[in-house]
Specification:
Blueprint lengths: L14 H4 L2 H15 L3 E4 L5 E5 L3 H6 L4 H18 L5 E4 L5 E9 L2 E11 L6 H10 L4 H9 L6 H50 L3 E7 L4 E4 L1 H7 L9 H8 L3 H19 L9 E8 L5 E11 L2 E8 L1 H21 L4 H15 L3 E8 L5 E6 L5 H7 L2 E2 L5 H9 L3 E3 L12 H6 L4 E8 L5 E9 L7 H40 L3 E5 L5 E4 L1 H8 L2 H21 L3 E9 L2 E14 L2 E10 L1 H15 L9 H18 L3 E8 L2 H8 L1 H18 L5 E6 L2 E7 L3 H17 L2 E4 L2 E3 L3 E8 L9 H17 L5 E3 L1
Parallel strand pairs: 27-28
Antiparallel strand pairs: 1-2, 1-5, 3-4, 4-5, 6-7, 6-10, 8-9, 9-10, 11-12, 11-16, 12-13, 14-15, 15-16, 17-18, 17-21, 19-20, 20-21, 22-24, 22-27, 23-24, 25-26
């Protein structure tokens, strides 16, 4: 039997999944051996699953010829089509043999087709087959022998046998299907048990509480996670009315919740929709132990049941509320609101979290010994007045003790606690039974005051309560410190401004562009009023300012400022500073005019002769050596005149050293007036003087010496009483030429001039000798 094309398919089980093909093959083979009827099993897609027996007429002849093979295929396809709708289908093959087919149907699904065929109902018409052998060129004898092998079975018998084989196959398949389904059922049961276990584990470990009630409001079930969260059991909550009374003790809040929930239930019961919109709410609930929790509730309406699903969001909610409280307080701090207004709002926010509490803030006075009222909006006025100004100390209520010790003080019951003995009647009049007080501590560990929480009943704080009072005290500390810092800043700014305005220094501030943003009066007087005159001297100063702004490195600069009386010297220390618009600079200039004048005076004294104010010996040698180097480099002549007063010792001996000093001063003045501006005149010591003349040859030097001699000779010194004296001097002149190649020094020149001067003295004094 050839594979038949598929004509149907199914998503149901395949036949090979239900029965063992090997076993069915053995059954079909046994059937063939017993009956001689070829048979086969074909799948729903036309695939050949198994076959048993095939007569030689089909195998060796019909299938070997194209035409007769085509006839076989056509007959088989027609037979398969019939088998889709008929219990038993029969087809007379055009090659002369009968084929039968019947579907195997399990639960309405066509899983396979059973074939029987290649048989005859009565002995073969040999003439027909002989003619067919001739038509298709078969070996007639062999073909007729093959035809004689075909079984001859009546039609009714073959249909019974075919029906029997289908029953056998069907029973096998249905039994296998039952086994498979039982296995699947066991797996499903096992999976269901596992799911139930997992669901129980999920619910047991779920953070949500679950309960439900019927339409009448009778609570039918409370899962233990609900009890774990809120404390209530089914015994505690027989119905919704009890639940509302316990969870929402405040009538206003309770009535609002009930109204909203009833409206939701009415909407659900009147709706035709299969799916209900859950009712969601977030509110503060009272637990069985008296504490409160922030709960997000969700209610679903399912099969006339109200399923209640709640989640504890207390920690998240408290964190959010505290952030809001902190933000509101910091906003008011930033706006520079008054401290009592800021702390009043802080207390209002804290009390909103739990209406059963009443709070207060007391501040220490400047001495740190007494507590003063700051904010207590829900405490009676008489109570606030009574404790205002109380002196702190151990045993002085909760707040006085907390402020004194710097530690938290918890009084669960005011009526029995020794700290409250002096104030017991006062507290009773105010309706206060417990007081927890937290010291307000600054960032420097200094007690600033106290934050207190009162209850109308004896109360012991929970961990959440302790966290809340610490939070409140910390916020109060921030507000108080900020105010104190702001006040201190204002005082500092006022002090700084007063200091700057009255400082003897010149002070200026610059923005990031180097533009002036502040000057004190001294700076303005020195620079701003005479700006046009000071531009040149300020150029370098502004360069330094900009350098400090750009680098941040402190600089020091000295400037000379012209004034009405001369000049003023200022030394500026310039540092970078942060302004509102970025990095600027601060310049502080100190008047160092007296210092500079003193330096100049000391420098002049160091270089000058104290008596004559001429250059002294040390400075002369410095200048002379410098001029010697210049003359040597450019080959210029350099001359030196040395002179000494004649008989000066007699002047001192006759008139005294005071007159002698006058004589020296007179000679110095006459000499200074006689020599050229470029000449270097100095007193070497005693009555010796020297003149260094640059770019001057020997002849010119001698002439200058002669003029100087005559000037001194003609000068007189008045002694008073119409008495005058005069002196003379002896001169020695020397000149050096640097184009001779000889080495020279200032000491050599002085030595040569000194020798010439002594020759002048030997020759009679009051004369000039040139070497």
């Amino acid at each position: 039997m050839k594979k038949i094309p598929a004509i149907s398919s199914s998503d149901y089980y395949r036949i090979e999944e239900l029965i063992d093909i090997t076993s069915i093959t053995e059954i079909l083979e046994s059937y063939y051996q017993a009956t001689g009827i070829p048979n086969g099993l074909v799948g729903p897609e036309g695939e050949l699953l198994t076959q048993a027996g095939w007569i030689d007429a089909c195998t060796h002849f019909h299938r070997g010829n194209d035409e007769t093979n085509r006839r076989c295929v056509e007959s088989n396809c027609e037979l398969l089509e019939q088998a889709q709708s008929n219990k038993v289908s029969v087809s007379l093959c055009k090659n002369g043999l009968y084929d039968y087919a019947t579907p195997i149907i399990i639960e309405g699904h066509h899983l396979a087709t059973l074939f029987m065929g290649q048989l005859l109902h009565e002995p073969a018409d040999l003439k027909y087959f002989e003619q067919q052998a001739e038509t298709f060129s078969y070996d007639k004898r062999a073909y007729i022998d093959a035809i004689k092998q075909a079984s001859v079975i009546p039609k009714d018998l073959i249909e019974k046998q075919l029906d029997h084989m289908v029953q056998v196959t069907t029973v096998l398949a249905e039994n296998a299907l039952s086994v498979i389904r039982e296995q699947h059922l066991q797996q499903a049961l096992k999976h269901s048990k596992k799911q139930r276990f997992e669901m129980k584990e999920l619910l047991d470990n779920s953070p949500a509480g679950i309960s439900w009630c019927d339409d009448a409001g009778n609570v039918e079930y409370i899962y233990h996670t609900f009890t774990r969260m809120l404390g209530y059991t089914l015994k505690d909550l027989p119905n919704l009315e009890t639940w509302y009374e316990k969870a929402y003790p405040d009538p206003d809040v309770r009535n609002k919740i009930i109204t909203h929930r009833k409206n939701w239930v009415a909407k659900q019961t009147s709706s035709d929709s299969i799916f209900s919109q859950p009712y969601t709410d977030e509110s503060t609930l009272h637990c069985k132990d008296g504490t409160t929790r922030r709960i997000v509730s969700q209610i679903s309406y399912i099969n006339n049941k109200q399923l209640y699903y709640c989640t504890d969001v207390t920690e998240k909610w408290r964190s959010e509320q505290r952030n809001l409280t902190r933000n509101r307080m910091m906003e008011r701090v930033a706006k520079e609101d008054k401290l009592n207004s800021i702390l009043h709002q802080l207390i209002t926010d804290i009390e909103a979290d739990d209406p059963a509490i009443r709070c207060s803030v007391l501040l220490l006075d400047t001495e740190g010994k007494h507590l003063l009222n700051c904010a207590a909006p829900r405490l009676p006025d008489f109570y606030n007045a009574a404790i205002n100004g109380v002196e702190i100390g151990e045993g002085v209520g909760s707040c006085g003790t907390a402020a004194y010790l710097g530690k938290r003080v918890i009084v669960d019951d005011i009526t029995t606690h020794p700290y409250w003995e002096p104030y017991r009647e006062l507290a009773a009049s105010a309706g206060l039974r417990s007081c927890w007080s937290e010291p307000i501590i600054s960032s420097t560990n200094k007690v600033l005051g106290t934050f207190a929480i009162y209850h109308e009943t004896p109360s012991t704080p929970s961990a959440d309560d302790i966290e809340q009072i610490c939070f409140a005290a910390n916020l109060a500390s921030i507000a108080i410190e900020n105010l104190k810092n702001r006040e201190e800043l204002i005082r500092s700014e006022q002090a700084y401004r007063s200091l700057a305005e009255n400082a003897p220094d010149a002070i200026a501030r610059y923005d990031r562009e180097g533009q002036l943003i502040y000057t004190n009066p001294n700076f303005a007087a020195l620079f701003t009023n005479n700006r046009s005159e000071n531009d040149d001297c300020l150029a370098h100063y502004h360069t330094v300012i900009n350098r400090v702004i750009s680098t941040g490195i402190p600089q020091q600069v000295e400037i000379q400022v012209p004034t009405a009386s001369g000049h003023c010297y200022l030394m500026f220390n310039i540092v970078s500073e942060e302004n509102e618009d970025g990095t600027g600079a601060l310049a502080i200039g100190r008047d160092i005019t007296l210092h500079r004048e003193m330096e100049q005076k000391l420098e002049k004294q160091a270089r000058s002769d104290f008596l004559t104010q001429l250059i002294n010996r040390r400075h002369f040698f410095e200048l002379a050596n410098r001029e010697m180097m210049v003359a040597s480099r450019y080959h210029n002549p350099l001359s030196l005149i040395m002179f000494d007063l004649d008989h000066f010792k007699q002047v001192n001996d006759t008139y005294g050293h005071g007159i002698g000093d006058l004589v020296l001063q007179k000679v110095a003045d006459v000499s200074q007036a006689t020599v050229r501006a470029t000449d270097i005149l100095a007193r070497l010591g005693g009555e010796e003087f020297v003149v260094l003349m640059v770019q001057t040859n020997n002849n010119e030097a001698c002439q200058s010496a002669e003029r100087l001699r005559q000037a001194i000779n003609g000068a007189t010194i008045s002694l008073g009483s119409n008495e005058e004296i005069s002196v003379t001097a002896s001169f020695g002149v020397t000149t050096i030429q640097f184009d001779t190649g000889s080495s020279h020094s200032i000491n050599h020149m002085i030595s040569d001039a000194d020798n010439a001067m002594y020759r002048a003295k030997q020759e009679g004094r009051n004369r000039v000798v040139c070497s």
